Structures are given as C-alpha cells and as structure tokens.
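Service request form, structural biology core

Requester: graduate student, group of Dr. S.
Request type: structure prediction, single chain
Budget code: on file
Notes: please return the result as structure tokens.

Sequence provided:
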Amino acid sequence: MPAAPEDPAYIAYKRRLHRNLLLYIVGLAAFLLLMAWAERLGMSKVWLGPIFLFATVMIYAGIGIYGRTSDADEYYVAGRRIPPVYNGMAAAADWMSAASFISLAGGLYLQGFSGTESQPGGLAYVLGWTGGFCLVALLVAPYLRRLKLYTVPDYFGLRFGGRWPRLIAALAAVLCSFTYVVAQIYGVGLIASRMTGVQFEIGILLGLGGVLLCSFLGGMRAITWTQVAQYIILLLAFLIPVSWLAYKQLGNPLAPLVYGKQVDKITEMEKVLKDSQAERRVREVFAQRATEYEERLKDIDAALRRERAAAQERVRALKARDADSALIVAASRELAALPRDAEAARELWTRAMAESLERAKPLGGLPPHSQAFAGDPQGTPAEQAAFSTSRLNFLALMFCLMVGTAGLPHLLTRFYTTPTVAEARSSVAWSLFFIALLYLSAPALAVLVKFEVMQGLVGSSLDTLPSWIGQWAKVDPALIAVADVNGDRILQFGEIRIGADIVMLVTPEIGGLPYVVSGLVAAGGLAAALSTADALLLTISNSIVRDVYCHEVRRDVTPEQRVILSKFALLGIAMVAAFVAALKPADILPLVAASFSLAASAFVPVMVLGIFWRGTTRAGAVAGMLGGLGITVYYMLVNSQAVRHLVGLEPGAALWFGILPVSAGVFGVSLGLVLAVVVSLATRGGD
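Core staff response, request fulfilled:
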C-alpha cells in the first residue's frame, strides 16, 4: 500500500530524498569543476569526451543497480510512493527527449517561428508539447491514477472488458512507443560517436548499455531516480550555453528575456544576405545543378552511362599521369558512389534536384526567422494559398502534439507512481514548471546561434574555419556540410548546410566555451535520450508481456514471472530498436512527431469518452481505436515516397487539404471520435 502524504514515515522519506538530491547536485558541481581544472592543465579533448560519457552513464547504471527489484509493484509503478516534485522532475526528463533537447532548437533555427509550406515551424512544437500537459492534468492523469492500474492498456481492459480493447491498445502502445524509441537511440548513437570517436553504430551499442542497466534491473523504480539525476544534468547542459551566448551578445544571461533584440538584427542581416552578389552567385549555381539533375532524369539510363564513363575516364587519366594517390583514391570513391542501377539513380537524383532547388532560394531555402507564416495573405493567389497552407499545418501539428501528449503510454504511466490522485495532479504542475525552464530558452537558443553563424562564420575564409565543422561532418555529413560553391574561398550563408540535430550540440563550440561545456552538453543530450528510451522500452515490454502474453497466451503467470518476462522482452526490443536506429531512418524530430499522431489517434478519443461518457461501449471503443489508428497509418504510408515507389504509385504526395503526413493525427482523432460515438449509440445495451 502506498504511504499517505501525512504519514510521518512518508515525510521522513521525502527528507531523505531532499538530502540525497542535494548531495548529488554538490557532487555533480564538484565533478564539473574538476573537469574544468583538468582542461586548464592541458587534458586533451580525446580524454574529456569519453570521461563525460563514461561518468554519467556509470551514475545512471549505479542508480539502476541500486534500484533493482523483482517486486511487481516496484517494477511497474515504483511502489506508488514518488512525491510530486520528484515525479514532476522525472516526467520532465522523460519528456525532454532527444527531440526536445537535441532537435527543438535546431528545428527553430531551420524553420523559424512558423516554418514553411513543407515544414511546420518550431514554435508549433513548443506550444503543442507544453499545452499537452494541460490536457493530461485536466482530462486523463487523475482519473487513471484513481484506478490503480499498471499500464495504459489496463484501462481499456478494465473500462470496456473483452479482449479486443486491451489488445488493440497494447499493439498501438508498441507501435507509437517503438517509433519514439528509435529516435532516442539514434540520438544516443549520435552523441556517443562524437564524444568517443567510435563509429555511429558502436556508439549506439555503448549508449544502449546505459539504457539497459537502468530499465532492465529496476523497472520504473530505477528509471524514476535515474530520470531525476538526468534532469539535473540536462538542465545545466541546456541553460549554461544559452545563458553564456546571451551574456556574450547582449550582456545579460537571462536569454528568454533579452533575445528579442537579436531577432531584429537577424532580420536586417537576412535582408543584406538576400541582396549580396556572392550569395546570389551561390543560388545560381544551385539552380544550375537542379537543371542538370532534371536533364539526367529525362533519360536516366543514358545519363548513368555517361556519368560512369566519365568517372572511369577520370580514374584512368589520373593513373596515366601518375597523379597524387589521394586524387586517385578520391576519383575511385566517386566512381564507386555512383548509383548501381537506374532505379537507384532516379531516387538519388530526384532527392538531389529537390535539395538544389531548395538551396537555390534566398537564405539557402530557410524562411525569414521572424516570418509569421509562409506566403503572403495580401499577395498573389499562389502566395495567399501558401500562407493558408502554412498556417493550417502549423495549427494541425500543434493539435497533434497536444492531443498526442495526452495519449502517450510511457508518459501516462509516470502518473501511476504517485501516492494519491491529488499528488498525481500536483506532479503534472511540477512537470510543467520543470519543462518550462528549458522550453522558454529553446527559441532564444535558436536565435542566438543563428546570430553567431551569420555574424561570425559567414564571410570567413574557408581555410580558417573552426575545427568542429570537420569533426562533426565526420560523424555524419548530413549534420553539417560546407562547400565553396561559388569558388571565392569565402564562406557564404547559402554554402552552409546544417541539420536540426546538431545545432544544440555545437552551441558551446560556436560560442567559444571551454570543451568541458561541450562535454556537459553532450552528456545532457545523452541524458535526455536515455531517460525517454528507458521509459519507452519499459512501456513496450510491459505491453507485450502484461497485456498480450499474459492475457492472450498464458494466464497463469505469477507476478514475479511477469517481471522476469518483461525484463527479457525489454532486452529484445532494445536490440531491434538499435538495429533500426543504425539505419538512420529519418531526423529525430519527424520520427517523434509521427509517434504523437499515432498515440493521439489510437488512445485519446476513446480514453476521454470512456472517462466522461458512460455510454461508450466496447464496440464503439474498438471501432474508434481501429478507425483512428488505421487512417493515421494509411495517411503516413501513402505519403511516404519509399512506400509509393514500392507499390508502384507516382512520386509526389497525396495530401488531404494540404495537411502534411506528420500531422496525420488530425484525421485519426476526428474519425476515431466520430466512430466511437456513432457505434456506441448504435450498440448501447448490446455489450
């Protein structure tokens, strides 16, 4: 039985937690000072990075080992005795995933405040994710906590009865959580490979060891205290660089309060860049490249033969004149990198043409940072349509993120761990507070980094670029690439290609901070990814074991056996997720956003109806869940270029009302709600 909040033993327990947290913060501060002192004495970056990675993972592993348990109540819901402030801190760490920590500021950097027709802006993420917690507090968390459940599918089984509501909920939980966890493990590999210098795939396995030591041994009990420790690290890792940049540029470390001045400066610099002759020449080169790719695509077989013959001739010519071996190797690599066949060439050249067309636009295809929406409501018909589409996608994405927040199984399970319903509600408020500390700084970070790039990097000689550009390019060329497109040996803004997943990680190096801060930022990104990955893997394994295996395959499983099976299921899912993440399926932010649409469609309409409308029937629940999830998955797949190619559809998109597939939950939530209501009305009294 969980302790009552006024219980003297519970009060003493909270005092011990406060003391332990204070000791942890003091120890962490001492470690950072020690690393800073070691760097001043000349310790190499080659050692600093791995030390940060190893030390933080060992902290989490130590907590995981200390919190190990085989008790079902402790493993699934941490004994239902987590105080609200600590549960809020753990929920914030759970929430501040790799997408929030690594990619949110990058999304704002690339998309501005509102984005483009093809990419909704970064503020949609800030508003949607934050607003979603209000829905959690008002509509879901207290009601689920009152039922004393273990998993979200438990609710569907209890409320509607029968096998199908629980089974559908379990499979939907696996689907949306697996999509989410792949993004987290990708972030783990990204950071671990940069900090240690190992290959990306090995970096994934290194980070995965930390995940498994936390979640495998202790379940929710170990994960909760690990997430508290991780939140402190990621809070420091986020606020120190952004505060330094604000102080460096504006003389005030309170970035959210002062960064607006830099928005005005960026707007002026954007105007200068649009009129620059050197930038215009860069745009012309990219436009020419797009035309060349378009010509190749008209006769792919002939173009591929020409490209292969030309590459072979270059290798022969270099060998004939006994050229430098590095030139011969580079030419041989170009030959080997040519597409294998016409189909591969079509895919590669189509993508390259689209990228060249985008970079042929002003500012390298980036929208003006402070632009409200794409297009112009007072402009031409095409500009008015672009404005309307951009605004619609912004609102659609914000809606999906808000509703998806109220449906994510790993997040809702977090509120099962408090002693009472009132404390579950209180812990949501604490979660909002701890999240706001970081989310208010994310737009500021994007602006301050963009100012540093425009002011400090643009116009520099290509021969004197900072070393971090080449180092990150080695990890993954998609993260950052610089090319002298116009041949003047001077870096132009249009010649820089930066991925969303790198902006936060390079902030200390852009700001000229000591490398110890870079190590801290990487440790913060690792903490964000690991904290969410822990909870997601636990959710997936619990859904498979508790809600599928123990109800559909074997019902005579003891609580202790369930815990053991959950641990091994977690291990297997982690290996599969690591394999998928190693394929680098997409950027982190789109993967995470897709999981929100899936969760919103599968769970929220039926869950909220089940809580507030007694007339919701089992048949209505099944129809709503299947219909909502089905149309969401269909819309995502039919607009996936890989799927369209696989089934023989024409390249392009099949959008409804211009809504992008990342916001497919708009259709899923609407259809799921309608089906649940209509079918429930038609079957009342029949269940």
